[in-house]
């Protein structure tokens, strides 16, 4: 009965994204150094998972490509689990074509060029030399793809020159919007429940007030519904 | 009433470790590269947390020094949260003197020599050069300390030559026992609920059958109770 009531509530809510396919990435990526060690970005996945859930609530058919997180799957979302940046790109490309792609994951920019097959021994040899190489830029790759979704949104975690860095990314990566959030010690909301973000588009900058990640997700999902509604 | 019944069950259970102070470490450590990136070892913290809980159930006064994990605090345990290896060592030293110390945490062997205060920018500069330096060896430091607890137990995650590596550690780190577990792809139980371990002491090697991490914890807690009972 509860399930039926919930289903009912869903079906009566406005569903402006019904019939739309949306891809969302979330969480960190783990880049192995050896079988036990890895490099990662700090990311709880809370913001990305909330956005996937909010889009599904508006009726979208959502695929969530997620790195390692400790979060329940959002309701009515198709979750694809990955670990590395290259696996994430592959899963995103497998999810095309779609109407919109929202890249929230904190993808590691670099990976170890040659991960060790066995655990690096500490004894005797001192600290290891690890050579890094650049990971694919998933946002830029999809932004420039000939299968580019109509709407492409990136997230940017910045500690300095937040808006200037985000505006540069908008151009370079062919995104329609960048959601910039401040992860400096001052703005520091990483891993927490709140977020303070700026929505940067060609039209300018919207400063959103500090709100919960769920509220950011709902507001962004509404914005996406309007964008996909325009001349869709 | 349920609480009362549980309390009652606790007080009626045998409490061979009543009055004993035991330190347990658990989880990974995170070693920052910059404000958003870090190096870590894979560790869910499940085994260390289970051991802390099992020792508390036997009546010990348990301090659990834990790196970043997504686990509930075990019942009746004093939890101290840390992030880096150096913070973990500091918290362990603050917990001395104690009767036994069980080092289950997957401590990162290296840290970035000079973490960046701002997020390293990807653009233009290519992959960064990161110089690593060795972290303190917490097990060896406490094993050789003049405040060494009477019983010191280390954990060793190995992919190769499991027993030989663990036996070498026993000597070098002045541990009374090493619990060795195989984290190679074959034995691979990291992050899972089961564990296959070997208990290595001067007396020899005990191969324990594959069992749940809770069962490993109970068996090890019983072993510790016997050891602390001998000539205590």
Short description:
The structure is a homodimer of 232-residue chains. By secondary structure, the first copy, chain A, is α/β, with parallel strands linked by helices.
Describe it.
The structure is a homodimer of 232-residue chains. By secondary structure, chain A is α/β, with parallel strands linked by helices. Chain A has one domain (19-121, 128-229): Rossmann fold (3-Layer(aba) Sandwich), CATH 3.40.50. Helices cover 29% and strands 27% of the residues of chain A. In chain A, the strands form 4 sheets. The first copy, chain A, has an 8-stranded mixed β-sheet, sandwiched between helices. A two-stranded antiparallel sheet of chain A has the order 2-3. In chain A, helix 5 (162-172) links the parallel strand 9 (151-158) and strand 10. In chain A, helix 2 packs across helix 6 (213-229). Chain A is globular and about 65 Å long. The model of chain A is unreliable at 185-189 (pLDDT under 50). Chain A binds chain B through residues 33, 35-42, 70, 106, 108-110, 118-122, 126-128, 130-134, 157-160, 165, 183-185, 190, and chain B through 33, 35-42, 70, 106, 108-110, 118-122, 126-128, 130-134, 137, 157-160, 165, 183-185, 190. Chains A, B: It catalyses: (R)-4'-phosphopantothenate + L-cysteine + CTP = N-[(R)-4-phosphopantothenoyl]-L-cysteine + CMP + diphosphate + H(+); N-[(R)-4-phosphopantothenoyl]-L-cysteine + H(+) = (R)-4'-phosphopantetheine + CO2. Chains A, B: Keywords: Decarboxylase, Flavoprotein, FMN, Ligase, Lyase, Magnesium, Metal-binding, Multifunctional enzyme. Chains A, B: Pathway: Cofactor biosynthesis; coenzyme A biosynthesis; CoA from (R)-pantothenate: step 3/5; Cofactor biosynthesis; coenzyme A biosynthesis; CoA from (R)-pantothenate: step 2/5. Chains A, B: Residues 17-225 form the DNA/pantothenate metabolism flavoprotein C-terminal domain.
């Amino acid at each position: 009965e509860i399930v039926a009531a919930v289903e009912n509530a869903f079906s009566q809510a406005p569903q402006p994204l019904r019939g739309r396919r949306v891809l969302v990435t979330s969480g960190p990526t783990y880049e192995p150094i050896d079988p036990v060690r890895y490099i990662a970005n700090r990311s709880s996945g809370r913001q990305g998972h909330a956005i996937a859930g909010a889009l599904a609530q508006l009726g979208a058919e959502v695929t969530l490509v997620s790195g390692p997180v400790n979060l329940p799957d959002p309701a009515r979302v198709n979750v694809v689990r990955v670990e590395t940046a290259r696996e994430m790109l592959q899963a995103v490309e497998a999810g095309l074509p779609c109407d919109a792609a929202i890249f929230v994951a904190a993808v590691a920019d670099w990976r170890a060029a040659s991960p060790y097959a066995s655990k690096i021994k500490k004894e005797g040899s001192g600290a290891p030399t690890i050579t890094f190489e650049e990971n694919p830029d998933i946002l830029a790759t999809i932004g420039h793809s000939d299968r580019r979704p109509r709407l492409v949104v990136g997230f940017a975690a910045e500690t300095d020159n937040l808006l200037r860095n985000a505006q540069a990314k908008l151009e370079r990566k062919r995104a329609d919007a960048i959601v910039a959030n401040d992860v400096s010690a001052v703005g520091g909301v990483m891993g927490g429940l709140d977020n303070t973000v700026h929505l940067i588009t060609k039209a300018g900058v919207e400063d959103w007030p500090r709100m919960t990640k769920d509220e950011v997700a709902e507001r962004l999902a509404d914005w996406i519904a309007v964008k996909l509604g325009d001349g869709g």
